[in-house]
Amino acid sequence: MVAHPKFSVHVIAENRNRNFHQVSQIIKNVFPTAIEPGSIADRLLTQGREEGRKEGREEGKLIGRIQTLQEMLGEQVTSDDKLKELDLATLRQRSLRLQLRLRQL
Predict the structure, then answer these.
(1) Residue 65 — very low, low, confident or very high, per pLDDT cuts 50/70/90?
(2) What is the pLDDT of residue 1?
(3) Residues 43-69, buried b or exposed e (16+ Cβ, 10 A)?
(4) pTM for this one?
(5) 49 versus 12: which is more confidently predicted?
(6) CA–CA separation, 8 and 28 (whole Å)
(7) How far is CA 104 from CA 46, 67, 70, 96, 101, in A?
(8) Cβ(4)–Cβ(31) under 8 Å?
(9) Cα(96)–Cα(24) distance, rounded to whole angstroms?
(10) What are the helix (H) ranges across the chain?
């Protein structure tokens, strides 16, 4: 959230013990904003959520595929946590390499 600079200074000047989160909450209460249904912001948020879900599903499928291929190859299975640290491109590459190795057997 972007705070109104003059208001932030005033709130902080009133009580120097307030942290950033408290100041943000005060500003949010004083200047409430809502996203209008059907607005550009609403559409962008919806699109972002859909893209995030799609990426999450793809990541989950790739992680499962990698672990299954590792099992089939008799390798140690990489943990979910380790694989979640990798980006989608790296997961795709790892999956393809494992598939190629399995086909060569």
Answers:
(1) very high
(2) 44
(3) eeeeeeeeeeeeeeeebeebbebbbeb
(4) 0.62
(5) 49
(6) 11
(7) 44, 18, 14, 12, 5
(8) yes
(9) 47
(10) 5-14, 20-30, 40-72, 80-84, 88-103
